[in-house]
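Researcher: Next entry in the queue.
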Amino acid sequence: AGELEVENAIIDGEAVVTDKAGMPDFNALQNAVHNNPYGMYLCAFDILHLNGDDLRDIGCKARREFLSGIIKPHSRIRFSEAMPGDAQSLFHLVEEVELEGIVSKRADSKYRSGLTSDWLKTKSFTVDEFELLGVERQPGDAAFALLAQPGSGKYVGSALISLSRDMKERLLKRVREHAGPPPEAMKKRPGTQWLRPGVKLRIRHLRGDHSQMRNASLLGFGDEE
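Model: Structure for this entry, 225 residues:
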């Protein structure tokens, strides 16, 4: 509240760290939480209370006018500008710049906690090929494919294995045929069947930071597109 020069306020926003190009960097954010909290800033997109007044029953557009009016230039709290226009064109732009999606809100909607039909997050997915390092299976849990960048062997995350019975059997056959020792940096993963290089998979995952995949799922084998 001191930085905003108001008595009190409750703001809805998201902590962000950007890269040199000004794009959100999820891995840098995780690192900043533990090692460099001053490297983060708050991207503010809504306001619930201001100076003792409850703003939640005011329309979204009007609330954001209150919010933009209290944020100072060069502050560590930054106003998230709206992008009015055709949704399909905006989403195409999001895909071009490799962002993970957009959030759409009704301009006249009241603020309500939890899921609501007044706002929608549309995620942007892409499909890439990765090397299969191993398959992790814990009793009672879903199986996950542990993945690496082709050529480098660098671990980039895991993908849910959700395939037909036939595809699962073919995958397990390849796992058995390519069984090998664990990578040096990944020995402490119980319940994992490790592979030698050679099995490539097609993975659907969120666009954005390529050093660590998120919301990833296995689509099939790299040699069977």
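Model: The longest strand covers residues 125-136.
Researcher: Noted, moving on.
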